[in-house]
Amino acid sequence: MTAFVIEDEPLAARRLTDLLRRQNPPVDVRATADSVEAAVVLLQTAPTPPDVLFLDIHLSDGLSFELFEKADVRCPVIFTTAYDAYALRAFKVNSIDYLLKPIDEEELQAAVHKLRALHTAATPTPSFDAGLLAQVLQQLQPSQQYKKQFVVKVGEHLKVIPVENISYFFSLEKATFLQTRENRRFVIDQTLEQLEKLLDPRQFFRLNRAYFVHQDSIQDIIHYTNSRLKTVLLPASPEGDVLVSRERVPAFRAWLER
């Protein structure tokens, strides 16, 4: 079985490729692409289509559904996404499967087994309505409920801090801190990983393992060595300028341009 992997996060693409090659028998990943445009070129120039296309929903230059408008997709598609399983029931139609990130090896194995069973039975893969799936996704986005405020302890009192008053979160010595626009700092219970799921990704971005920042807190972006970027935050962070992890730079640029 052959596959193309369309994924804009290099680490996620490498991990999925490794997992596919560990299947028994291995899935032959013939090519990868990190954007809609690159995927279009790949599908248009490939001598033969793959047996399956692993497709991330959000790519660096837009939603992957645009691919179906620009290229002739003639193979089964397995979506990879961070949306929760309940919201994504609409995607499990017409023999289309989906895998939640981070991808679980057993779930991947089940999806590959399902595809192999279809091939063995010579069952034609039903066509699907990409426009309908895009519409479902758009309906899901506004309904997503993000955290609007945090309650922190100040001495004997509890203080409510609205999200719009937060500049960024950072971790230091196994603790997570909330930094306000008024340059006040509070310890909170959540980890940065938990905060990524609680807050609107259109407003907040994970710069690296230690910083999760609001877009308005970024006062300047400076080119650094080896194509890296560093940011100047307001209020200033305890460590001064904050570097964007190398693997997050493409996603950071796309986030800024959205």
From TrEMBL:
GO MF, one annotated term: DNA binding
- One family from Pfam that matches here is LytTR
Q: Which domain of life is it from?
A: Bacteria
InterPro entries found in the cross-reference section: CheY-like_superfamily, LytR-like, LytTR_DNA-bd_dom, Sig_transdc_resp-reg_receiver
The Response regulatory domain sits at 2-116
**Keyword vocabulary terms for this entry:** Phosphoprotein
All copies of domain HTH LytTR-type, residue ranges: 150-258
Q: Where is the signal peptide?
A: none
Q: Which residues carry this modification: 4-aspartylphosphate?
A: D56
Q: Does the keyword Nucleotidyltransferase apply?
A: no
> What is the recorded name of this protein?
Response regulator transcription factor
